[in-house]
Design brief:
Layout: H1 11-25, H2 32-42, H3 56-68, H4 82-85, E1 98-102, H5 105-109, E2 128-136, E3 139-151, E4 162-166, H6 175-181, E5 191-196, H7 204-214, E6 222-229, E7 232-241, H8 245-253, E8 258-263, H9 269-284, H10 290-293, H11 299-312, E9 320-325, E10 334-336, H12 361-364, H13 369-374, H14 381-388, H15 391-399, H16 403-420
Parallel strand pairs: 1-6
Antiparallel strand pairs: 1-2, 2-3, 3-4, 4-5, 5-7, 6-7, 8-9, 9-10
Helix pairs in contact: 7-11
């Protein structure tokens, strides 16, 4: 069972959802008129007095009011939101939740200011007012106004990019709505990421997170959903809470003080400094033994964390977060995964014999540059430098030189393959 007592998602559920989206697409060709009707119903309503101004975002909302006229962007009920009214009832069934996102077309496609037409632009200037609605088994369970952004790094260049939904007080949106979008038992969330599936029928995030949970690793809350933008189907995405100290970190640690170093994302100064101290300790004591490392890091967590990377052949693994409880002197650093969508892509190694496949090299990066590129492990200089400089790789390489850790690692892999990641689990 997965977190919250729910059964893990199975390939059958995901395949059924994909088929549902395929057939639903046929009846949604001309549903865009729903959005026009929904927007028209909001024109002429009384706007809120005293428009809040939160820097760039406040100005963006002010521009939204100007575009829509005197529109009540804060009032109303979920049933009256554009994201609700834009949807055809025929599209709301099926085994997967349905997420509808609605935004003014200019906010998306204007040549100079649209977030889809300026896909590489980032920051608060590129957040746009939108509304979102979520259905479970045909029942509307969430409706809210949000700030909408494009999410991701290289995934921005995909035909369907990922999105980020900000549930800000500025929009009269609540963290409770963000959490409910992730499931009935999820904690409140101020930011929800709508992760694109890179390859049709390929849902790695779902399976990797289930494998990580099976091995006792912490993960973000996640769920697949069929996503629509202005009434048009975009396919199956994976909804996840964003990995951030004020969200997942606060839920996990509660009132306890903690450090949370988030790779490839925002990190507080004190967390950066704490992480740098761990790096300095590692450099001063090279090579560290398993006994030495155990004084500072949770070696079992690190081993399970990196084994998940190898088992799932995750080529963009140098992200996620490292965390440390700050209130206790005997606390240890530990790691968690995030955004594992570049997993199970075996095209570069499928022709190799099983004993030749470079699952180990995925983390160690041992081999020539040409070999690593041919395997799909290294894509460019930036990718290579980020992974080679990751403290998890550096620490793992040092631990492998310790006979005690090598015996521990072999025993862990053997037990895991024989008793945890068995055919019965999959």
């Amino acid at each position: 069972m997965s977190e919250g007592g729910r059964a893990p998602f199975t390939p059958a559920v995901v395949i059924a959802g994909a088929l549902t989206a395929f057939f639903a697409a046929g009846v949604l060709v001309d549903r865009l008129s729903y959005f026009d009707d929904a927007r028209d119903t909001l024109r002429g309503q009384a706007g809120p007095a005293g428009m809040p101004n939160d820097g760039n975002i406040g100005r963006a909302v002010a521009r939204a009011l100007e575009r829509f006229g005197a529109m009540d962007i804060f009032g109303g009920v979920p049933e009256a939101l554009p994201s609700t009214l834009v949807m055809s009832p025929e599209a709301l069934g099926g085994p997967l939740p349905v997420l509808s996102i609605a935004a003014d077309d200019d906010y998306l496609n204007d040549p100079e200011t649209g977030i889809l037409t300026n896909i590489l632009k980032t920051g608060s200037e590129w957040e746009r007012l939108a509304s979102v609605s979520l259905w479970e088994e045909g029942e509307l369970v969430v409706g809210s106004r949000v700030g909408l952004r494009i999410h991701g790094d290289t995934s921005r260049l995909l035909r369907n990019p990922s999105f980020r939904l900000h549930f800000r007080p500025l929009y009269r949106a609540t963290r409770l709505a963000g959490g409910r979008m992730l499931g009935p038992e999820a904690a409140p969330a101020s930011v929800v990421v709508v992760h694109v599936v890179r390859y049709e029928g390929h849902y790695p995030n779902i399976f990797v997170f289930e494998i990580a949970r099976r091995l006792g690793l912490p993960t973000v809350v996640f769920r697949p959903a069929r996503v629509y933008l202005n009434g048009q189907p975009r396919g199956i995405y994976v909804l996840t809470e964003r990995l951030m100290p004020d969200g997942w970190g606060r839920t996990y640690f509660g009132d306890t003080d903690f450090f949370m170093y988030v790779y490839k994302s925002e990190t507080t100064r004190r967390s950066r400094e704490a992480h740098a101290e761990l790096f300095a300790w590692l450099a001063e004591n090279e090579p560290v033994t398993m006994e030495q490392a155990s004084e500072h890091v949770d070696v079992a967590n690190l081993t399970r964390h990196l084994f998940t990377v190898m088992f799932c052949f995750t080529t963009d693994w140098a992200q996620g977060a490292s965390m440390l409880e700050a209130d206790h002197a005997d606390s240890k650093w530990f790691w968690m995964h995030w955004d594992m969508d570049q997993s199970f892509d075996l095209r570069g190694i499928v022709a190799l014999e099983p004993w030749q496949q470079p699952f180990f090299e995925l983390v160690t990066l041992q081999g020539t540059r040409d070999e690593l590129q041919a395997y799909g492990i290294v894509t460019d200089d930036r990718h290579d430098a980020r992974h080679r400089g990751d403290i998890r790789r550096i620490l793992f390489l040092q631990l492998l030189r310790d006979p005690e850790y090598w015996r521990y690692f072999i025993r862990f892999v053997t037990d895991t393959l024989n008793h945890e990641l068995t055919p019965a689990f999959f």
